[in-house]
Amino acid sequence: MTLEAEFERVSMPLSDPFTISRGTQTDAENVIVRVTDEGGMTGVGGAAPSAHYGETAATVEAILPDLLAAVESVGDPHALHEIESRMAGVVNGNPAARCAVSIAVHDLAAKRLGVPLYRLWGLDPSRMPATSFTVGLDTTERVREKAADAADAGYPVLKLKLGTDRDRDLVDAVREAAPDVRLRVDANEAWTPREAVEKTAWLADRDVEFVEQPVSADDPEGLRFVYERSALPIAADESCVSLADIPAIADRCDIANLKLMKTGGLLEARRLIAAARAHGLEVMLGCMIESNASIAAAAQLAPLLDYADLDGSLLLADDPYDGVEMPDGEIRLVDQDRAGTGARPVGGN
Ligand SMILES: [Mg+2]
């Protein structure tokens, strides 16, 4: 068997500028990877590099030729373990670049077998969490409007970014605009441990479900301090990057927030899910701001999750790929009539 691979950078404008405690972005640069077999069947994946983890579109493009050469040398799109393992041997880190290739090869393998990827894994598509929709930092009035719009659009779960001196005002604005939604908050490392504990008390009074990454990932003892005193469950995101982090966070949080772009591939992501469960953690799958070229793959894992935060494409004004439908936040794998991840070019087939 032979495989051929190519890649392309896409710059996608966001519907609204997106701000978290670390900064603002107005567009998302992803790198789309396509792997084609000898019969002309193509699998697609996407890299959504995060500067926070040391990757940019340029670093992805720099390493992809070596990763794709490794895939072509394996030649068999069903040799998924071998392909991920060889890529990990090509380069340390660079997880978004490796993940794009892993997704494309998984998409191709499932397409060749004529089944959606979740079927290849034997997962039950009838029970899974709804995805949250994220409201970024903004003026209090804009946060109120965005929360009302999201609730009107039918999203049952909102995630609000925090980490400012206006955190109380922002939460109150969302609660006024959308009193019935399930609400989570994400501080993206912005709080001190003592500040975080204090905030969990009043967040609990406002019926918040859990708090994501309250303190710096560089302060594991601070995370433990918060976890032991918090009025709410704690999710670890920036503190939970690779498989080795799972045992390290197991006694410091309640929920592991995984992202495909942190793990480096779909097989590795499934290992993290299993490891998190083995350590008694609940599992959340989040995302970067991503095209459906990769979000569709994340959606295939949804039956394994307690919480889904797969709104990466929903935040885009223009995504060149369609993926798994998410009406009202409901991840509709059960309706998927396409083999593979379900990603396809807009207007294509
Ligand atoms: Mg987060």
From TrEMBL:
* Species annotation: Halorubrum laminariae
Ranges for domain Mandelate racemase/muconate lactonizing enzyme C-terminal come to 140-233
Q: Which InterPro entries match?
A: Dipeptide_epimerase, Enolase-like_C_sf, Enolase-like_N, Enolase_C-like, Mandel_Rmase/mucon_lact_enz_CS, Mandelate_racemase_C, Mandelate_racemase_N_dom
- Name of protein: Dipeptide epimerase
**What are the leading ranks of the lineage?**
Archaea, Methanobacteriati, Methanobacteriota, Stenosarchaea group, Halobacteria
Q: Could you tell me the keywords of this UniProt record?
A: Isomerase, Magnesium, Metal-binding
Q: Which cofactor does it need?
A: Mg(2+)
> What family is this protein classified in?
Belongs to the mandelate racemase/muconate lactonizing enzyme family.
Q: What's one GO MF term for it?
A: metal ion binding
Q: Cross-referenced SUPFAM superfamilies, in alphabetical order?
A: Enolase C-terminal domain-like, Enolase N-terminal domain-like
